From TrEMBL:
Upper classification of the organism: Bacteria, Bacillati, Bacillota, Bacilli, Bacillales
Annotated SUPFAM superfamilies: lambda repressor-like DNA-binding domains
The keyword DNA-binding belongs to this UniProt entry's keyword annotation: yes
Family annotation (Pfam families): HTH_3
PROSITE patterns: HTH_CROC1
Segments traversing the membrane: none
Gene3D superfamilies given in the database record: lambda repressor-like DNA-binding domains (1.10.260.40)
Full protein name: Helix-turn-helix transcriptional regulator
Domain HTH cro/C1-type: 13-61
Source organism of this protein record: Priestia flexa
Keywords for the protein's UniProt record, in alphabetical order: DNA-binding
Length: 67
């Protein structure tokens, strides 16, 4: 899959745990973990919510590489 999550990197840079972000988004830590693994790929609405919560743009949440 050419789309890769940068969420873990951003969480580490901002010193936010997955548990803290899950609580802020009102989702379970397991659901957040699934999105981070891109299983399933999060809907665009979710990406915008995550970006807002982390203070980044949606573009910053993902890396895209052509295969």
């Amino acid at each position: 899959m050419p789309l890769k999550s940068r969420w873990r990197i951003i969480l580490a840079e901002k010193e936010i745990t997955q548990k803290q972000l899950a609580k802020e988004l009102n989702v379970t830590p397991q659901q957040l973990s699934n999105w981070i693994r891109m299983d399933p790929v999060p809907r665009i609405e979710i990406a915008f919510k995550v970006a807002k919560a982390l203070g980044v743009t949606v573009d910053e949440l993902f890396d895209y590489t052509e295969e």
